[in-house]
Each structure stands twice: as structure tokens, then as C-alpha cells.
Amino acid sequence: MEIVENTPFIHNFSVTGNDDNLPEKLGVFETIDEFQEFFALNTVAEHQKVFAKRWYSDEEIHNFRNEILEVAENELPEAKFQLSEKEIEFATAKKEKEIAIESVGALQTKIGDLAAEIKIGKTEIEVPANRTYKVPIKGKYYFYAWQDNGDCILVKVALMTDEEKEELFSQTDKNEQFFESLKNVKNQRKAK
Q1: Other residues' Cβ atoms within 10 Å of the Cβ of residue 21
Q2: pLDDT in the model for residue 143
């Protein structure tokens, strides 16, 4: 099963670890240059490629289901038929029977694996460095990415090592002040 290449770059990310309740969407930017300028002016952050979890698209789930149907309707019945034929010829074809059993098992495993992928519902993708900013705040890195529709969204949260916390301590103050100001604006909107 191939993962659908999204063009334009627009995804529904699955983010965990945002315990500080940082905004999941920082704004809408017409160009990637505006997105990059926003981070340069407001934060101390750097470009970094990141692997972030995203939900499968409807198209990908549809493709998974089509592949399961293809295997269940076409390949598995044929494999079961071959298995029964080999059982009749068992006395002279013991080795062929073992091959057919392995084929059925592999196909059932394939169906199970595909079904498990659908159940998980998300996969990890590489978000290019020029679309991503890593912002250190309160002992964590918050990764924000720019999408082709202009949205700047939170895609991942990762813990800093103790060494990184000590090294970046002075830089995180500016970031904390910036995001606190955004939270205050968000809270004022909720209050209205």
C-alpha cells in the first residue's frame, strides 16, 4: 500500500504532549516567506526537518480497503483452492502443500497488517526543514509547520535533554513571552 503524496502540502497532524496548551494554529500566511519571517521576528527558533504523525487521508483509507478487498476476493480464495488441491496430492506433493500453507498465512497476515494500519489511522511523514520551526519553550521543543493553504500549525512536541535545557535557557524566555501573549489573546476571545 502506497502512501498518497499530498500536493499541495496540507495534512491533519496528530500531536501529543502539548501540556502547556500552546496554540495549535499560529495563523495564516500567504507565502512560506511570510511564515518564515513571522518566526524570525517573534521567536528564537531554527529550521529542522521533523518526522510528525498525521492522520491517514480518506483517499488512503479507501486505498487500504480496496487492497483488502482485492486480496480477500481474488488472492485468498485462489490460495485456499491451491491448498485443497495440494492436500489431495499430499502423498506425492508434500512440499507443494507447505508452500500453499505459507501462501495462505502470508495473505492472512497481509490482511491483518492492512486492517491494523486502518485501525491506527495515522502515519509518520517527513516535514521539510524549510516548512518547519523548532521553538524551545519550558523544556520542550514545539514544532510548527507551514502548509500550502497558509496555515501555520503545531505538528509535534518533543522533550529537551538536560544539556539542551541548560544551553537554551536564555533563548526560551523570548519564546515563552511570545506564546503567553498569544494565549492571553486566545483567552480574551473566549471570554467575549
Answers
A1: 9
A2: 95
Record the pTM. 0.58
Write out the three cell numbers for 80. 485456499
**Range with lowest mean pLDDT among 5-9, 79-83, 181-185:** 5-9
* Residue 67 CB contacts under 8 Å (≥ 6 apart), including other chains: 1, 114
- Give the tens place of pLDDT for each residue, 93-110: 778 888 889 999 999 999
90 or 17, which is more confident: 17
- DSSP track, 23-39: -SEEEE-SSHHHHHHHH
What DSSP string runs through 116-174?
A: HHHHH-EEEEEEPGGGEEEEEETTEEEEEEE-TTSEEEEEEEEEPPHHHHHHHHHHHHH
Which residue in 156, 135, 148, 178 sits closest to 42, CA to CA? 178
